[in-house]
UniProtKB/TrEMBL annotation:
It comes from Chitinophaga chungangae. Residues 10-233 form the MOFRL-associated domain. InterPro entries: GK-like_C_sf (IPR037035), GK_N_sf (IPR038614), MOFRL (IPR007835), MOFRL_assoc_dom (IPR025286), MOFRL_protein (IPR039760). This is DUF4147 domain-containing protein. It comes from the Bacteria. Pfam families: DUF4147, MOFRL. Residues 310-411 form the MOFRL domain.
Length: 420
């Protein structure tokens, strides 16, 4: 990679380092009174659950009676008190259901005076799952996969997920009574809404079965629902199936947002400034279809009139409506679409990558691109049409690959502008 491409990667890596659990877990745990609890249980779900549990064990040590977390990647270290289950993401598998069953079974042992510390991060919607009565695992997987490909945003997807579960939407906290529940959250959604992050198994949920049905209709999925899933939602709308836990119900449960994309962007800005860039954070809530956001970001970069060199930063999470048969993820698609628009602007470099180190079903976190990287590369347009960004960046050699990072606060986008 050329120097400016490497600089963009360094800025991204600095953002990821700032939201590692060792940076925030000790402070979050300091706000919990564990001394007054009869027993302390450490539970969790999400891509960062194991790394968060490791830091919790360093602080709480022998006071933990039992621990159980589900994540998507075995950690490279040993947890003394906590059992780790690995399950699939972004579509649940049998291990997701095993983890969900184990959590519910453990909840039945809760007694007055017990304290549950729940570690929640993005990915929990898939990693911690159950199957509605009358439906099959395969039907649930097909629906979740369709939601991922239709262009629905994370709030819409999780509204549906919560209403096909007896765990999500605060229902796990409901089951954990009479224990007190304190949830430490690593946010991976725009706006840091705790009801959306990981489908909020331990926080109140204002959404309804009716809203879930509206989402399914909006994306053309309602008409093809399997009978068991359709019946479950219809029973919920009719009031036969219980709703998720609503605001005001979970008086025994509290939560804190311990880290978010904002912290990552602040760290990225700090690093970019130290490297000599005039830095501006554009937004921490970049959403919408990746190709549409590419147009907005490219226009901002091309119309920039400030001092050089400049670094423009954004955070958020886009969506991709998959119509092709290629391999990629939202960050690679965004990078390819933006690079195509900036191919005649050799002074601009663009990076987009996921802070969890995973972009779609690929081995990359994202990609970095500029006119120099495009020179000599194949025509990017057929790759974009087929949603095949991974194979394009495999040819340019400008993937961003970090491996599993142990954290997850959405995506970071970096625009580096040299003087034209």
């Amino acid at each position: 990679m050329e120097n400016v491409l490497q600089q963009a990667v360094v800025i991204f890596e600095h953002a990821v380092a700032a939201v590692q659990p060792q940076q925030f877990m000790r402070k979050a745990l300091a706000g919990i009174d564990t001394a007054g609890a009869s027993r302390v249980f450490l539970l969790g779900a999400g891509k960062a659950a194991a790394s968060m549990a490791y830091e919790a064990e360093q602080v709480l040590g022998g006071s933990i009676a039992q621990g159980l977390v589900v994540t998507n990647h075995l950690p490279g270290y040993t947890l003394e008190k906590t059992t780790v289950i690995t399950a699939a993401h972004p579509v649940p598998d049998l291990n997701s259901v095993i983890a969900g069953t184990a959590m519910l079974n453990l909840s039945s042992a809760m007694q007055p005076g017990d304290l549950v510390i729940f570690l929640l991060s993005g990915g929990a919607s898939s990693l911690l799952a159950d199957v509605p009565e009358g439906a099959t695992m395969e039907e649930l997987q097909e629906l979740f996969n369709a939601l991922l490909k239709c262009g629905a945003d994370i709030k819409e997807m999780n509204t549906v997920r919560k209403h096909l579960s007896t765990i999500k939407g605060g229902q796990l906290a409901r089951a954990l009574q009479p224990a007190d529940v304190f949830t430490i959250i690593l946010s991976d959604v725009p706006g840091d809404d705790p009801a959306v992050i990981g489908s909020g198994p331990t926080v109140p949920d204002p959404s309804t079965f009716t809203e879930a049905w509206i989402v399914l209709e909006k994306y053309g999925l309602a008409a093809s629902l399997p009978e068991g899933i359709l019946q479950h939602i219809q029973n919920g709308i009719a009031g036969i199936t219980p709703e998720t836990a609503k605001p005001g119900e979970l008086l025994h449960a509290r939560h804190v947002i311990a880290a978010s994309n904002r912290i990552a962007l602040e760290a990225a800005a700090e690093k970019a400034e130290a490297m000599g860039y005039h830095t501006r954070v554009l937004t921490g809530a970049a959403t919408g279809e990746a190709r549409e956001l590419a147009v907005s970001l490219a226009e901002l970069a091309l119309q920039y009139e400030g001092p050089y060199p400049a670094c423009l930063l954004a955070g958020g999470e886009t969506t991709v409506k998959v119509t092709g048969n290629g391999l990629g993820g939202r960050n690679q698609e965004l990078a390819l679409a933006t690079g195509l628009l900036l191919q005649n602007a050799p002074h601009i470099t663009f990076l987009s990558a996921g802070t969890d180190g995973i972009d779609g079903p690929t081995d990359a976190a994202g990609a970095v691109i500029n006119a120099a990287a495009l020179a000599g590369a194949p025509d990017p347009r057929p790759f974009l049409e087929q949603n095949d960004s991974w194979h394009f960046f495999d040819k340019t050699g400008t993937h961003v690959k970090t491996g599993h990072t142990g954290t997850n606060v959405m995506d970071v986008m970096v625009l580096l502008l040299q003087k034209p």
